[in-house]
């Protein structure tokens, strides 16, 4: 089971699990959906954390994210150490 953390995307925000910056790549695009204000983009961080990003006139921000799946090692590209 994963849990979501409400985190507003501010400049300099990073993934709390691996430390990779929210505004950097690589991340995997899972899906994109149009909304009245812009779009909602589901992405997966290199560590496996699923993120929901709001894209609108204010920019792009992570509005929620899950924990990485248990037992799945993160990718080195995500900025993890090891």
From TrEMBL:
It comes from the Bacteria. This is Uncharacterized protein. It comes from Streptomyces hirsutus.
């Amino acid at each position: 089971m994963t849990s979501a953390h409400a985190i507003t995307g501010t400049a300099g925000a990073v993934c709390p699990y691996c430390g990779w910056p929210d505004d950097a790549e690589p991340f995997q695009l899972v899906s994109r959906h149009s909304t009245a204000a812009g779009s909602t983009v589901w992405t997966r961080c290199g560590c496996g954390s699923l993120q929901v990003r709001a894209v609108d006139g204010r920019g792009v921000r992570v509005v929620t994210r899950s924990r990485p799946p248990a037992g799945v090692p993160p990718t080195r590209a995500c900025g993890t150490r090891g």
